[in-house]
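To: structure subgroup
Subject: Chain for Friday's discussion

All,

I'm putting the inputs and outputs inline so they're searchable in the archive.
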Amino acid sequence: MKHKNWILSGFILLPITLLMAYDFFPELNGFLQLSKPLLIGLILIFLFSGFFINRFQKASLKSDLLWQVILTFYLLLLIIAYTLLGGESQVGISLSNPFLWIVLLITFFDIAKQYKKMKTA
């Protein structure tokens, strides 16, 4: 059952990657032909996948913490990679955006809090 959860969790990364690629490189729409219903579907997959994953797995602090760390670093690496490839976010996601750094700071504090909670449990 654990492998099934990791496969479902990994499947979430595909819509995130495609949506961010479309945001950073809107000229790829001619190549990828992402229609509005497909984009809405990808967003819905991303939003509702958390509900389905939580149905199949028992609450585990270790797996939740690991997933949060992986997702945070993956998103940060995507932003860096897409920026280095010459992309520019249409909605303002960039390394020079102070809001991004505030969100990352809050995320890191939450990760540290969960890590302490996991160690004491």
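Points worth raising on Friday:
Residues 61-84 form the longest helix (24 residues).
The mean pLDDT is 81.

D.
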